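New to this. Help decode the following:
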Amino acid sequence: MNRWRAVKLGEVADVKLSNVDKKTKADEISVRLCNYTDVYKNSFIDADKAENFMIASCNENEFEKFILRKGQVAITKDSEKRDDIGISTFISQDFDDVVLGYHLSLITPFEDVLDGRFLHYWFKTKQAKEYFENNAGGSGQRCTLPIDIIKAFPLHLPALSTQKKISSILSVLEKKIEVNNKINDNLSQMKKTNSAFTSLLPVRSSALEGASLEAA
């Protein structure tokens, strides 16, 4: 029987809070920075999405700790709202020059027990959102997730093979949704363009008719 077991995130993954800022220093390693908005707006990070990441720098220790590797998950650990925190993205490939910026947490699953994509989709569940909202610290315009709270995040895990099957299915569906959204965006833009063009036709037609009458 494939039983699901209850664990805490810190038992099945390494959790770090990034402190890499947006500054560029001549004596540090030049890198591309995966910033807060990059994590917030993207369900996954690949070479295409990382192509236009901002250039910054970090020291060797930061580089070793926060270089992005396939299978990792990054989440937002700070927010202005308690109900808009812990937003995740999945790192879908290895990078040699992309590091995670501050206000973010980098989670590296232990590969023998936790699939990164499965974790990424778990972060999207109602239970996960309620956990982060209820446990975020701070008040006013700054809420934050301390590292202990992230490590204590509750998970229910099936066998690793089952995790991968589930995450594979969800990944296919998610990519189809992304493609459909792009198509819809393009159609919407086309409609706006056509509408703008159509609105000009009567004006142009009247002008031409007027010119024809004058010529007559």
